[in-house]
Amino acid sequence: MRTAQGDTLLVDGWWGYSRKIQVSTDDVGALSWGIVCGFDHYQPCFYVTFCVGMFAHRAHRDIQRCRSKPLIS
Q1: φ and ψ at 34, to 5 degrees?
Q2: Strand partners, 3
Q3: How many CA atoms lie within 13 A of 40 on its CB side?
Q4: Residue 45 CA: distances (Å) to CA of 20, 31, 48
Q5: For residue 48, how many other CB atoms are within 10 A of its CB?
Q6: Could you tell me if 58 and 64 are in contact, meaning their C-beta atoms sit under 8 angstroms apart?
Q7: Residue 73 carries which DSSP code?
Q8: What span, in angstroms and rounded, lies between the C-alpha atoms of 59 and 37?
Q9: Whole-angstrom distance, CA of residue 37 vs CA of residue 17
C-alpha cells in the first residue's frame, strides 16, 4: 500500500500477521529468563512485566502512526 508521502505500508503476506517479529522473540526471551530465575524474588517478574508493557506501548504507537498516514486510493 502506498501513502501520500510515497512511503510503503506492508499489509500482505507475513507482514499482515507480524510487523515486528523481533518483539515477539524478545517477549519470549524475557519470559524464559524469568522462568529460569524462579519466583522467589520480584525482579524476574518485574523484568517480564516491564518488557511486555514497553513493547505493547510501542506497538500501540506504531499502529496509531500507521493509521494517521493518508493512503493513496
Answers
A1: -65, -40
A2: 71
A3: 3
A4: 23, 8, 5
A5: 19
A6: no
A7: -
A8: 27
A9: 31
What the block records as the C-alpha cell of 33 is 529468563
How do the pLDDT tens digits run along the chain, 73 residues long? Answer: 777 777 777 766 776 666 677 777 888 888 898 888 887 888 888 888 898 899 889 888 888 887 887 766 5
pTM, two decimal places = 0.59
**C-alpha cell belonging to residue 5:** 508521502
Give me the phi and psi of 47, to 5 degrees please: -60, -45
Handedness of CA 22, 25, 27, 30 (dihedral sign): negative
CB 4 within 8 A of CB 72: yes
